[in-house]
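Consider the record:
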Amino acid sequence: NKEDMAMHLKEYYAIEKLINELRDELVVFLLAYYDHELVGYVKISEHPCATEEAGLDTPIELQRIYSLQKAIGKGIGSALMQATVNYARSKNKKTIWLGVWQTNEIAIAFYKKWGFEIYSDHVFVLGTDPQMDWLMKKAL
């Protein structure tokens, strides 16, 4: 609902939180431009997270991958994913993992196209709404 989404946006995308993420040496943002306009980004984290990383070989987490609606279909997602793979390899990572809402069929299909497979699930709380996420991984 709108209240849960507003709570989520306030918590995860507050200016102070974004500034701290930009200063964090274990977090990287890669930006995508199209016709000299910023149209998307990916956030990658090297922070350990015991629950999600259990059993993964030298993991890195893909926490966000977004593009503007008007940029969808222009290869932005693929460019960002390739940049993520390249970055992970440059850091000698063996696995990229992510969480995705189980009903987000478009995102799940995109990740599968890139070689990600579902290996587990977990609860992601959106505001006050507990939702089930698939955990997906890709071997590098």
User: Anything to note?
Assistant: The helical segments are 2-12, 15-23, 50-53, 76-90, 105-113. The first helix runs from residue 2 to 12. DSSP finds five helices and six strands in the chain.
